[in-house]
Design brief:
Elements lengths: L1 E8 L6 E6 L2 E7 L3 H11 L6 E5 L5 H4 L2 H7 L4 E4 L1 H11 L6 E3 L6 E3 L2 E7 L8 E7 L2 E6 L7 H7 L4 E5 L4 H6 L4 H8 L7 H11 L6 E5 L8 H14 L7 E3 L6 E6 L1
Parallel strand pairs: 3-4, 4-5, 5-6, 10-11, 11-12, 12-13
Antiparallel strand pairs: 1-2, 1-14, 2-3, 7-8, 8-9, 9-10
Bound molecules: zinc ion (2 copies).
């Protein structure tokens, strides 16, 4: 089976990730506009018509903004979200609540060619989710917008062949940034975002020998850098004897592609 992963956008200005197995695709989040989506899909060599399903992590704008426009160009695409995410996303985007198929955390469901399962992540919106997605024996892990590096999230990471994990901020850069104290508290808090340190520790503890690549996602432009995130991840993995796992920071405005035969 031919697996392809493409990050089309990653960060607080928009998120869109596409996983393809033998030509059939699933997208996680649709937080970029239609024109941008089509342009980046083209750059990544992703055929938009191959996308059969979109899984939504939560209802923040940077994850749902492009959903309505996507539905216009891909009328048959199926949207999956938790009940509260579906409700909030429908209200935000002008989609109908019936445009969403609702999943329960921990219950496997079929999404196009894939079997998926959501798990709960703490974030400052109700019912936020991460995902494990299976295609044959291949497992993809996805968690961005995660307030705390919970063991339950790590347990899902353990089974992954490919993982996208939030490395939002560097704690020192966040402290020194000119963001308000209130916003800093929110970002650091248990329902905010993962720091490099938290994410690296989680990955170092739970990544298994199966993991072929760790993508570092939702990197803050003001309070982090790809280099810092990659260094923190690589050092933590090496210290745990897992230094062979390659890490790559995803960018807000550049596509990244991973391909493998499994
Ligand atoms: Zn976000
Ligand atoms: Zn969010």
């Amino acid at each position: 089976m031919k697996i392809k992963f493409a990050s089309l956008a990653s960060g607080s200005a928009g998120n869109a990730y596409v996983l393809t197995a033998d030509g059939r695709s699933l997208m996680v989040d649709c937080g970029i506009g239609c024109r941008e989506f089509l342009k980046r899909a083209g750059e990544a060599g992703v055929d938009p018509r191959s996308i059969e399903a979109v899984l939504f992590t939560h209802s923040h704008d940077d994850h749902v903004r492009g959903a309505k426009a996507l539905k216009k160009i891909l009328p048959d695409v199926k949207f999956f979200a938790s009940a509260l995410t579906a409700e909030a996303a429908a209200e935000k985007t002008g989609l109908d609540i019936d445009d969403f198929l609702v999943f329960e955390h921990g219950q496997p469901f079929e999404a196009g060619a894939f079997s998926a399962q959501a798990f709960s992540v703490p974030h400052d919106t109700p019912d936020a989710a991460g995902f494990v997605v299976h295609a044959g024996g291949f497992t993809y892990f996805h968690a961005t917008d995660v307030g705390s590096p919970l063991e339950s999230i790590g347990k899902n990471l353990e089974q992954a062949d490919l993982a996208v994990l939030e490395f939002n901020h560097d704690e020192i850069l966040l402290a020194g940034s000119n963001r308000s104290e209130r916003l800093k508290r929110r970002i650091r808090g248990p329902s905010g975002h993962l720091s490099n340190h938290e994410a690296a520790s989680l990955a170092a503890r739970y990544a298994s020998a199966r993991l072929r690549k760790l993508f570092l996602a939702h990197i803050s432009r003001e309070c982090n850098s790809p280099h810092l995130a990659e260094r923190e991840a690589a050092e933590a993995l090496a210290a745990a004897g897992k230094g062979r796992i390659p890490c790559l920071a995803l960018a807000q405005d550049e596509v990244a592609v991973f391909e493998s035969e499994v």
